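TICKET: design request
STATUS: open
ATTACHED STRUCTURE:
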């Protein structure tokens, strides 16, 4: 199956709403014959971020900007991206990132990722750790026994 992520209007499959965030997107990777690589198309409205600042222990990611000019926060800088830019997020703290849209136009991009059977995700701004495995869901922890994903954001 072929998707033209530049032009096709693909409906978002999942959106987890929280003020200032638009998490979710169209998971195109599962519609294609890929087992170890995931791909999600995101359309980020103005004034929103995709997810809190975070990094993965077991997942590598890469972002390809299709349209708009999202701002990327990494451990080293904040940078405005433009169509055609590709950024990689390796495993570990050096791959920490947050994608925000502080422009007046939507930003459209694809995030490609490896698909490990389990992962640990750290959120340094809110001092949380999320862990989960494929098919079994996830859980957030801090000094309390259980946290909501958006706690402290």
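STATUS: resolved
RESOLUTION: sequence designed for all positions
ATTACHED SEQUENCE:
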């Amino acid at each position: 199956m072929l998707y033209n992520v530049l032009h096709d209007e693909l409906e978002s499959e999942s959106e987890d709403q929280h003020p200032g965030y638009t998490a979710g997107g169209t998971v195109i990777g599962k519609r294609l014959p890929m087992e170890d690589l995931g791909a999600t198309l995101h359309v980020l409205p103005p004034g929103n971020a995709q997810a809190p600042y975070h990094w993965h222990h077991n997942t590598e990611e890469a972002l390809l900007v299709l349209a708009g000019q999202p701002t990327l926060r990494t451990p080293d800088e904040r940078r405005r991206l433009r169509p055609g830019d590709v950024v990689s997020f390796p495993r570990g703290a050096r791959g920490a990132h947050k994608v925000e849209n502080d422009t007046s136009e939507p930003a459209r991009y694809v995030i490609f990722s490896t698909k490990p059977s389990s992962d640990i995700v750290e959120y340094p701004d809110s001092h949380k750790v999320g862990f989960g495995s494929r098919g079994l869901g996830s859980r957030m922890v801090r000094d309390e026994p259980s946290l909501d994903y958006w706690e402290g954001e």
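CLOSING REMARK: The radius of gyration is 15 Å. The first strand starts at residue 14 and ends at 18.
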